[in-house]
């Protein structure tokens, strides 16, 4: 099952619901790729010995990994952290997340500053480029177990919007939102789905 994405109804209040527009307006994987968002479908049951995951990590330089459980019973300061995850922000580096259990939403801004909701479920791996405005919400299942991957030492510093002068944001705008953008290419063996 491929990742699903759609434009959200920004008037809807509950962040944990799908928030589809009426009628729904789905977003293609090629549209996400234009924004620099990559994704793969992997087998979370074998993540410790998964050859595909190993190949992705090696080719992209993801040498650090940890696991985060997002639910009231397992995450210290749950309410505060969930609120922070949902605050619109950017990072200096890619945000790489692999859903091992549960499900939730990554929202990202498109070139016209509209929210796209990306529903990730078990087996979905997503990479958000440095500088893209985004946020994370749990869905109604209220549980998400994520593998977090990093290049080098882990950095979790969010830079809340507005960040138009931040070097990562400037680079993102130049690389992914200007009309002069070139096609994004990945090695064929690791093409995002």
Subunit organisation of the chains: single chain
- Largest sheet, strands/sense/barrel: 8 strands, antiparallel
CATH topology call = Jelly Rolls
Structural class: alpha+beta
GO molecular function, one term: acireductone dioxygenase [iron(II)-requiring] activity
Binding site for Fe(2+): 89, 91, 95, 134
Pathway: Amino-acid biosynthesis; L-methionine biosynthesis via salvage pathway; L-methionine from S-methyl-5-thio-alpha-D-ribose 1-phosphate: step 5/6
Family: Belongs to the acireductone dioxygenase (ARD) family.
Keywords, separated by commas or semicolons:
globular; alpha+beta; Jelly Rolls; single chain; 193 residues
Structural overview:
- It contains 4 helices and 10 strands, in the order βαβαβαβββββββα.
- The longest helix is centred in the C-terminal third of the chain and has 11 residues, at 167-177.
- Strands 1, 2, 3, 5, 6, 7, 8 and 9 form an 8-stranded antiparallel β-sheet that branches. It has a two-stranded antiparallel sheet with strand order 4-10.
- It is an alpha+beta fold.
- Strand 5 and strand 6 (115-121) form a beta hairpin.
- Helix content is 19%, strand content 30%.
- It is globular, with a radius of gyration of 16 Å.
- The chain has helices spanning 29-34, 51-60, 78-86, 167-177, and strands at 4-7, 38-41, 64-70, 89-90, 95-109, 115-121, 124-128, 134-138, 144-150, 159-160.
- It has a single domain, classed as Jelly Rolls.
């Amino acid at each position: 099952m491929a990742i699903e994405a759609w434009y959200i109804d920004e008037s809807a209040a509950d962040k944990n619901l799908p928030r589809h527009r009426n009628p729904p307006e789905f977003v293609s994987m090629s549209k996400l790729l234009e924004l620099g968002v990559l994704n793969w479908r992997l087998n979370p049951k074998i993540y410790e010995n998964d050859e595909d995951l190993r190949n992705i990590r090696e080719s992209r330089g993801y040498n650090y990994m940890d696991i985060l459980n997002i639910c009231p019973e397992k995450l210290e300061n749950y309410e505060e952290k969930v609120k922070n995850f949902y605050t619109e922000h950017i990072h200096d580096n890619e945000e790489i997340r692999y859903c091992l259990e549960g499900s939730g939403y990554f929202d990202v801004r498109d070139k016209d500053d509209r929210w796209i909701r990306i529903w990730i479920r078990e087996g979905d791996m997503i990479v958000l480029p440095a500088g893209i405005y985004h946020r994370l919400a749990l869905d109604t299942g209220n549980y998400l177990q994520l593998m977090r991957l990093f290049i080098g030492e882990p950095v979790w510093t969010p830079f809340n919007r507005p960040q138009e002068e931040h070097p990562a944001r400037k680079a993102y705008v130049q690389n992914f939102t200007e009309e002069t953008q070139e096609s994004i290419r990945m090695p064929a063996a690791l093409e995002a789905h």
